[in-house]
Amino acid sequence: MRAAVLHEIGQDKLEVLDDVEATGFGPGRVRIRVRATGLCHSDLSAMSGVLPQPGPFVPGHEGAGEILEVGEGVSRVKQGDRVVVCWLPACGACPACRRGQTELCLAGFMNAGTPNFRRPGGDVFGFAGTGTFAEEVVVDAGCAVPIPDDVPFDIAALIGCGVTTGLGAALNTADLEAGSSVAVIGCGGVGISAIQGARLKGAAEIVAVDPVASRREAALRFGATRAVSPDELPDAKQQVTGGEGFDYVFEVVGKSATARTAYENTRRGGTLVIVGAGAMDDFLQLNMFELFFDEKRILPSLYGGGDVLRSYERTIALWRAGRIDLEGLITHRVPLTEINEALDQMRTGTALRTCIET
């Protein structure tokens, strides 16, 4: 089977190999033929070591495909079903699940420590317990979420992570008020999805902030009312809010420097939503006086901050109704054999989302 493998954390290139085997099939598990997968910045972060991930590993966690085989005890899906890969499945039994905070369930993270591929040289892990940069993957049945026949695989793949994360940050975590002012710092696929969520909620002003001109142009097409470079943000803050700061600011980069910028551009009493996944040794500094005096809400948003399955259903309904644009997020398409081209597109900011066809 063909798969793209990172041999050591810190390498910047993947090797596409034909000697990889998807392992671990058995009771409660399913084998999926991956048909499409998106490249998410989290994949790059895992490759560089920003996000913890044992290696060697197959990156990819934003995928969709069809069920090839189901293990004993699996009843929710069957052979031939079309599915989206959920990298953070809810177990339904832990304290977080019982409280209704299924996005905080740790069951999916536990899968990341178990190899689910093998090569002649030894075991290979899958990123976030999945590893969709492969022709096939074996995962827990809860990771395979059925999708309707009218949802193309490439659209379904985006719903598996980036779109759900960005939309959910606006709709679930922030639950922003109509007529509010919004800034989104970082306008890749997740940031653009947050912009679409803010537009759906009726934000009056949505300022997209990104250093890449093509992403700023794209943000305007997806609902931003203006788009600026990071250096232009102070002027935008003055023009839009009279210098007070935005009602909501979304940080979609995952760095303390941009989180600090986001905090400073949030008005007193406003809401800062942290969407970007950053490093464990990158610390955001706030002094105790400003934290008390400004009364700004700081809301982290993991995977859209809500029930993932309900978020999938909502996204499909909005897409069907033409309320959100998912096709437009896919700016590039490459076969798995050209995966390193996709990595370059992500690093340079030329792509919102690259669809990798396996």
Brief summary of the model shown:
The chain has 358 residues and is α/β, with parallel strands linked by helices.
Structure characterization notes:
Helix content is 30%, strand content 26%. The longest helix has 13 residues, at 162-174. The protein is built from twelve helices and 19 strands. It has helices at residues 41-48, 95-98, 107-111, 153-159, 162-174, 189-200, 213-221, 233-241, 256-264, 288-294, 308-320, 339-348, and strands spanning 3-5, 15-17, 21-22, 29-38, 57-58, 62-70, 82-85, 117-119, 122-126, 136-140, 144-146, 181-185, 205-209, 226-228, 246-251, 266-274, 297-300, 330-335, 353-357. The relative contact order is 0.16. The N and C termini lie close together (11 Å). Strands 4, 6, 7, 10, 11, 18 and 19 form a seven-stranded mixed β-sheet that branches. The mean pLDDT is 95. Strand 18, helix 12 and strand 19 form a beta-alpha-beta unit. The chain is of the alpha/beta class and 358 residues long. The radius of gyration is 20 Å and the shape is globular.
State the total count of DSSP E strands: 19
Oligomer: single chain
Q: Look at the structure and give the mean pLDDT.
A: 95
Number of helices: 12
Regions with pLDDT < 50 over 5+ consecutive residues? none
How much helical structure, as a percent, in the residues? 25-40%
* Terminal Cα span: 11 Å
What structural class do the secondary elements suggest? alpha/beta
Describe the largest sheet. Answer: 7 strands, mixed
| Alpha carbon gyration radius | 20 Å
Beta-strand percent range = 25-35%
| Large-scale geometry | globular
